[in-house]
Structure formats: structure tokens, C-alpha cells
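BUG-238 | component: ligand-complex export | severity: low

The export step for uridine-5'-diphosphate jobs runs without errors, but we want the raw record kept on the ticket for reference. Input record follows.
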Amino acid sequence: IDGEPTYKRVLLKVSGEALMGQRDYGLEPETVDRLAEEIEAVHGMGVELCLVIGGGNIFRGVSGAARGMDRAAADHMGMLATVMNALAVQNALEKRRVPTRVQSAIPMAAVCEPYIRRRAVRHMEKGRVVILAAGTGNPFFTTDTAAALRACEIGCDALLKGTKVDGVYAADPFKHPDAQRYERLTYHEVLSRDLGVMDHSAISLARENHIPILVFSIAEPGAFAKVISGEGRFTVVA
Ligand code: UDP
């Protein structure tokens, strides 16, 4: 990539499912390493980087094994799942000699740092990738909302959402191969057409704080670095 990075400080959100690879549950080491490789490339461009990783590959508070549980308890389990994913990604990054810190919204002193905004910023300024675990720390929220919240708090120039496809489509392109793909959307269009970019509270937070959301394929090798340079395929929500 020749281009200068368009953004100085970004937050990347990936779902837990992005770590699952061909499996239908949990983590696939090759896939976790592939993600680490993408992150390493962007880190190498000198971009300040923080990550929010979901937990849906392990536990989701509203479905599956959570059936019949109190929502708050199930959501606590979901947040713990994101900590496991954060540790897996940290490990893969450190094997590549990318310096990292995990900060959890639910303090877990023996495992990682607690989330402290100013300290997260300081780590990023020093070139460490900060992995923000345990979502917002509150039940009834999602890691999408956590990503938007942290991007606002930390003063990120952009919120990048790494998905399975190269942008936002009018319908699921796996089910509808001829679905329309958007280059640009407004926050309002995403909300009013209920396009499944991120949940509504995440979109609203990004809108109020004027943070553009860039949706791209995290599965495509090199795509993350290209998006950071303003190249490649992605949909901008702004
Ligand atoms: N969760 C929560 N509060 C948060 C973030 C996450 O309670 O601020 C819980 C919730 O149960 C959710 C689970 O953690 O279902 C996993 O997060 P999410 O579904 O956002 O993960 P993803 O779909 O991105 O893998």
C-alpha cells in the first residue's frame, strides 16, 4: 500500500463470528492469526489502533444457551465471552510482536487492565494496540454500541466495522446475490431503512458525534490496510 493513512486513530469492531472460521462455534486459530495479520499491517502504518471484539462465537445473551436465563446474567456471560476473544487476539498479535494491552470494562485484575479512558489513549499514543473487552460493561447493550461509545470517548477519526462482505447491501448478499451494494449512506438512511450495519444505538452515537462508519470485509486479505488508505472496497456511513 503506497497511500498515506487517511485516519490517525481508529477503532476496529469485529464480531466474534469473525474468529470462528469454518467452525460453527468458538475460535479457529488460523482465523484469529489472519485477523492479527490484518491488524499488524495497519499498526505498521503508524495508525493508532483500538479494537472491540464481539462474543457471539461463544455466548450471546439473547439466544442459544441463554434460553430461560435472566437477561442480565446471560449478558454478563456474553461479556465474559468477549474477554476470551480479546485474550486470543492479544496472543496472536503478540506472537507477531505487535505490542498490545487488553482493557476490560468489567475489572479483572489478574487477567487484564481495567478500562481507563486516559490510559487507553496513552497506550495508543505509545503505539500499543488496545483491545477493549467486556463491551460496555453493562447488560442490555451490544459490542456494536460499545464500539461506537469507545470510538467517541477515545476520539477516533473513524469506526471501522469488519464484516464478511465488502460493504452494506440492501439485503443479505449471500442469500440475494443481486442485492444492491451502497458506496455511501447517511446515518439516517441506515436507521430509517433498518440496514443491518450496526444496531441503532451504535449508529445514533456515531451520528451525534460525527464519527464516520466504514464497513468492509475483514475476510479479504489486505482489505483493512487498504480501507485505512482510502482505497479498496467499503461503504461509508456519514
Ligand atoms: N454484551 C453485553 N453488554 C455489552 C456488550 C455485550 O451484555 O456492552 C453481551 C450480550 O449478551 C451479547 C454478548 O455480550 O449478546 C456478545 O456480544 P455481541 O452479541 O455484541 O457480539 P458479536 O455479535 O459482535 O459477536
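Assignee comment: Attached the raw record above. The radius of gyration is 17 Å.
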